[in-house]
Amino acid sequence: MPENNRIESIDVMRGLILILMLFITDLYLPVVSQGLVNRPHEFNGYGIADWIFPGFLFIVGMVIPISIGKRISEGQNIKSTARHIIIRTISLLTIGVLMLNAERVNAEFTGIGKNLWAILIYTGIFLIWNKYQETDRNFFTIAGLKLAGIAVLVILVYKFRSGEFENNGSLITGWWGIPGIIGWGYLVSALIYLAIRDNILNTIVASLFFLTLNIFYKLDYFSALHHITSIFGVVIEGKVPLIILSGVITTLILKKYSFSNSRKAILIIVTIGISCILFGIIIRKWFNIIAIQAIPSWELICIGISMVLYALLHWTIDIKKAPVRIHLIKVVGAYSLTTYLASNILYYLIWSTHIPLFFYKQSGVYLIVIAGSIFWTLLMIAVTFLLVRYNIKLRL
Known about the structure:
Oligomer: single chain
Number of strands: 0
Number of domains: 1
Shape: globular
Structural class: mainly alpha
Order of helices and strands: HHHHHHHHHHHHHHH
Radius of gyration: 21 Å
Distance between the termini: 24 Å
Largest sheet: none
């Protein structure tokens, strides 16, 4: 297993998840079967969409031993690596909070419409966190672009008003937004890995700790901590670190066995994955499979599906070198944050210009809605490919 290079199967799985996310998100309509989209809050069952975000968290975990391991192998000490983890976490939390509040903009009090505010916010994000091709000649140009991005965010945050009583109309952290949730989970899991490195047993113990934490949380044992759950709820709830650490465990198994016995590595991952699925089904008697409520049974099933699916992709792509056309999928996976944010920018641009591109959403015909969402997904793949080609790609 390569230590310092990208692993194709990871990018492919992440790309497939992003493509499925784009499709399902655009498809979220009453006319579409609930088997394809998120279920009602109280629904006890499992749908395709329920696995998407946990699957992405799983991949976040898989990358941690590779990225941090590379830094350590290059001679970076614990202090500098921990600083990188914290800076990356702050970046994700910042982006998450800004995205979350984009929907709360009150044009009358802010002096700027919601769509324009969001477009400018995303523009600032790209200016700050774009992966520039740095040379001695363009240092001041890049510094100027980043400073311009910071200025845009500062001005827009200063002007922001929601018109709501909550937080006096200013920004709220809320549920932190998707990037923010990833940020909290990444912080905890990356620091755990930094402390125990490639020790599989200790990582499993850490995972079981967060599984126990999640069970206790769902049993309402932490009600007395309500004053801090608004900030640290992602960690206290346990579900996100649990799923991310399952990805870490998967990579550690590959690192231990892939060189000497790839079949054994695949067998171990599949066995653990199937065991998680079975255990999740068993504890459904006590914890219903309700994705929106993040019940332990749901998390274990998601972990199991992720492990089995990744084992299949790893065997097919990395080991057997199957001749499949995966370039565009790899691009989407390698630049997942770029794909995700670009789709949001495009939504706001279309809404602000009133271009009737989403006419298919008003159709009551099932096939038209499906076809429209497929077109949107393909469009976003093409947009990502073009952005990357012209060196517009985010790096945290």
